[in-house]
Amino acid sequence: MQRRNGWSCIRANAAGNPLRLPDCVVSVVYGSEQSLRPAGPERTMSERLSTIGKALAWARSMLRSVTDRPQLEAERILAEICELPRASLIAHPERSLAPEERQIFTDHVLRRASGVPLPYILGHIEFFGLDLYVAPEVLIPRPETETLVEMALAWARQRGSQTVLDVGTGSGCIAIALAVTLPHLSLLATDLSIDALRVAHRNARRHSVRDRIHLIRTDLLQALRGPIDLIVSNPPYVADTEWHHLPPSVRQEPTLALRAGPEGLDVIRRLLIQARTRLAPGGCLLVEIGE
User: Most Cβ neighbours (<10 Å): which of 36, 107, 119, 219?
Assistant: First the structure.
């Protein structure tokens, strides 16, 4: 067998005419008979992902174009699948992966490489020390929103029993963090999306605060009358002109939870108007907003 320009040439007959086969094909010659079979991509991928170390190396190369932390994200994906701490992955790169682990890992990495946000792939994220379920129907909770929770907690602690409203609750992250931290609070949480409220309901049950958070489907505060002591909200505030400059993975999150008109203020303006007639005397409105 000779190799010429990336092709395998095999003398196949007495006349000496070469049979040219692509590299992905293996040829076995027995006397005057030939048996051909594909060297299948499945086999190649299986070998490439046969161990933890090899799988992480492959994933790292696949994820470089979508994240500045390809190693960390690869480890998080594989740790979830193998049900191992990340430290174990690093300590045992020679550990073999089962076929089902390789398949799930491949699927997850390819989804992430296509731009799907990692929390949607894993199905959860940590927020304020709480493990929260997330799905494409809700905005992914972000660390900066924890500052909003801390400000709400500081205000509520000074005033004892209070009625608190989380407007546009999404995953329920703000309301649940407040409920878990301060058991005396009475909480309301609104969202226009019924799918988002289902996610919030699931998270509230997960953290045993479902009976303390009243979930309401409404546009901002329309279905509420007050008085409310504290209103907290992480509303949409991305301007139309900024939308196409966001990372592709962010644009896969719900548009309803992000975009807010030409200046990014459409929802916030409506929220301010509605809050004026619902806040109790001495009440407080805390809103997350962009720069």
Answer: 119
250 shares a domain with 136: yes
Quick one: angle between helices 99-113 and 70-82, nearest 10? Answer: 140
Altogether, the residues listed in the chain come to a count of: 291
Judge if the upstream peptide bond of residue 281 is cis by omega within 30 degrees of 0: no
Of 129 and 49, more confident: 129
The yes-or-no verdict on residue 40 having pLDDT over 60 is no
Residue carrying the six token digits 């490439």: 48
Q: Which two tokens stand for residue 51?
A: 């161990």
- What pLDDT score was predicted for residue 36? 35
Tell me which residue has tokens 């020679």.
Answer: 94
pLDDT of residue 15: 44
* Contact partners, residue 85, CB within 8 Å, separation at least 6: 79
Give me the phi and psi of 247, to 5 degrees please. -55, 145
Residues 200, 169 contacting (CB under 8 angstroms): yes
Please state, rounded to an integer, the average pLDDT across all residues of the chain: 87
Query: Are 198 and 279 in the same domain?
Result: yes
CA–CA separation, 146 vs 13, rounded Å? 74
Instruction: Note the pLDDT of residue 28.
Output: 34
In whole angstroms, give the CA distance from residue 8 to residue 27.
9
Q: In terms of domains, do 32 and 50 share one?
A: no
Domain count for the chain, please give it: 3
Query: β-pairing, 228-233 with 163-167?
Result: parallel
